[in-house]
Design a protein that fits this description.
This protein has 281 residues and is α+β, with helices and mostly antiparallel strands. The chain contains nine helices and 13 strands. The chain is elongated and about 65 Å long. The relative contact order is 0.09.
Length: 281
């Protein structure tokens, strides 16, 4: 248990929401390899080694006043600095530098590190948020969202101020005008397209684009783009806002293209590849 106390003491000395490197107690104690990441989270302390995949954590129980204050400070800081169309200066794209909470959120949505790299998904330790960028066809940054991963962080998404009438996230933009599937969030767009692409035949993937509206409301610019497809399928979250959004989308673009709607208990990113394929069939 002595080796466990070693990493735990380090974690307890970190400010809430921060991480540090240390030797892995399983494969590298005393080697100065620093292969393990130690985290101080709002709910627990944890360690993960990328060399041997060693994991351990220690629950903290009820948040202390200082920890609740730290979460509030993170919320205020994020709201104060995310205004311009500029990615956080401390953004990292290396998975080993993501916090445990950030990695868990991404894994829960079915996104692996190779997918993070493919879509340039990053992480800001200062904001303690996952950074989800949006690029145009020329690979120019046109928008981004900062997604909360800690308990108590509000709002869930923070994004720049400005006109995003023509902004949407596209996964699998094949350049064809076959079918477009509309979802709310970026993670769901990636999950749905990856599920389509995982089928034994690539016909559906070659003819299907999945876009995120970055919310539930469709703008005039987004509607013009969606209207160029032969078929539009809405698959928003099953809550009140999602239902209303789906109705408004079909009402807006229904005069331009054929529309249908999918309604499920969970949002798209919560389903397996096979379930997504069956739902879209």
């Amino acid at each position: 248990m002595q080796e466990q106390r070693s990493w735990l003491a380090l974690a307890q000395n970190l400010p809430c929401g921060h991480n540090d490197r240390t030797d892995c107690p399983s494969c590298g104690e005393g080697t100065d390899t620093n292969a393990a990441i130690v985290n101080h989270n709002a709910k627990y302390y944890s360690i993960h080694c990328y060399a041997c995949d060693y994991n351990d954590f220690d629950s903290k129980g009820v948040l202390s006043l200082a920890e609740r204050q730290r979460i509030n400070e993170l919320n205020e800081e994020a709201l104060s600095i995310v205004h311009k169309l500029e990615l956080p200066k401390d953004i990292t794209y290396e998975p080993e530098h993501f916090s445990r909470e950030a990695r868990l959120w991404l894994f829960k949505g079915g996104l692996t590190p190779s997918v993070w790299r493919q879509y340039s998904i990053g992480y800001s330790a200062r904001l303690q948020r996952v950074i989800l960028p949006v690029f145009d066809k020329d690979n120019k940054l046109i928008w981004f969202q900062c997604r909360a991963v800690l308990t108590g962080q509000k709002p869930k998404y923070i994004q720049p101020t400005g006109n995003r009438s023509n902004v949407y996230f596209s996964a699998g933009d094949t350049g064809t005008n076959g079918r477009v599937v509309i979802v709310e969030d970026i993670m769901s767009a990636i999950r749905v397209y990856n599920a389509i692409s995982s089928t034994s035949t690539s016909t559906n993937a070659d003819n299907t684009t999945v876009i995120s509206l970055l919310g539930t409301k469709i703008t005039s610019g987004q509607a013009a783009h969606v209207g160029s497809f032969e078929q539009c399928t809405t698959w928003l979250d099953g809550d009140k806002a999602g239902k209303r959004g789906s109705y408004d989308i079909r009402r807006t673009v229904g005069l331009l293209t054929e529309c249908d709607n999918i309604r499920t208990e969970e949002d798209p990113k919560c389903y397996s590849n096979r379930q997504i394929q069956e739902i879209l069939a």
